[in-house]
């Protein structure tokens, strides 16, 4: 049976799978609070790899690229429940509670919570909506988001510097960012936004730094990495082509032969 995702209401997502399921690259535009009900999520992002074990609660920061692999539990089921903490709800909460953030959060990428009965019971309270025993309404979604915010701040007050930071992404070092994120198969528009630039500004700065276009650079960078993995690590293309941002294996083989004049087996 294939893994699937079911949206219960606007900002609550329940993901379930019965076999290992490789997710696609995702751009995370809003903060997400998630609970691993069963199984395990392996998340790959610019700061490294994160494993979310069963019963763990994690805060996923906005404005980043993430790729996931979902592993069912020994009982054969993967379940992950998440709620999106959208900017509008966070702005309203900050306004009502007179919250002002004066500095950015400087903590680590892995934003796990200490074992917390309140947070676990919060997610358990959402079960009736997953099972469709109760009807979820927009008003209820607003109330559940406010409850989630309260519980997050109660668990770690410093997280206010994450939740209520409404500043636009600042211009990031383009060379460093692209070398960390080139393997994500996302649009040039997404790369522009993540580096704090307009599309035209991104393309202009990219040409200055790399001397070529983003699409051409991404293709060359991915193929060079593939050549290294095949020649020096003896890896098979089928094992890594998705991880390098190629959409399908046949396109990868064609591009590789076009660039190097050799097939992967000849390398």
TrEMBL record:
Among SMART domains, the record links this protein to: HTH_ARAC
* Domain HTH araC/xylS-type as annotated: residue spans: 172-267
**Pfam families in alphabetical order:** ExsA_N, HTH_18
Q: What is this protein called?
A: AraC-like DNA-binding protein
- InterPro entries with a match to the protein in the record: AraC_XylS_family_regulators, ExsA-like_N, Homeodomain-like_sf, HTH_AraC
Transmembrane as UniProt keyword: no
- Could you cite one Gene Ontology molecular function of this protein? DNA-binding transcription factor activity
Lineage, top ranks: Bacteria, Pseudomonadati, Bacteroidota, Sphingobacteriia, Sphingobacteriales
Q: Species name for this entry?
A: Pedobacter cryoconitis
Q: Which UniProt keywords apply?
A: DNA-binding, Transcription, Transcription regulation
At the top level, the lineage of the source is: Bacteria
